[in-house]
Amino acid sequence: MLEGLPAAKDKDAKPPVTGTAKVFLNEKTGPPQHLASGFIYGIPDNPLQIPDHFYRDIHFRYTRAGGSQLPSNRGWARSVSDYEARFSSALSNYRTARSHGGQFIYLISDLWGADGGQPKDALWPGDNDDWSHWDNLLTRWIADAQAHDHLDGLVFDIWNEPDLHFFWGRSVERWLRLWSRTYQRLRKELPTLRLTGPSLSAFPSRDNQWWMGYLKHVSETGEVPDQWAWHMESGKTESTMTNSVALFREMLGEHGLSEDAGRADINVNEYATYPEQLPSAGAWWIAQLERQNAWGLRGNWAMGGALHDFMAGLLGKPGAGTDQYELEGTGYWPTAEYQVYLYYAREMVGGRVRTEPTEGAEELGDVYATTDGKVVRVLAGTRARAGKWAVQISGWEKEGKVGVKTLAFSGDEKDHFMKFEAPEVLSEREVELNEGSLLLPVEHQDTTTAFAFEIT
Question: Which keywords does this Swiss-Prot/TrEMBL entry list (predicted)?
Answer without folding.
Answer: Glycosidase, Hydrolase
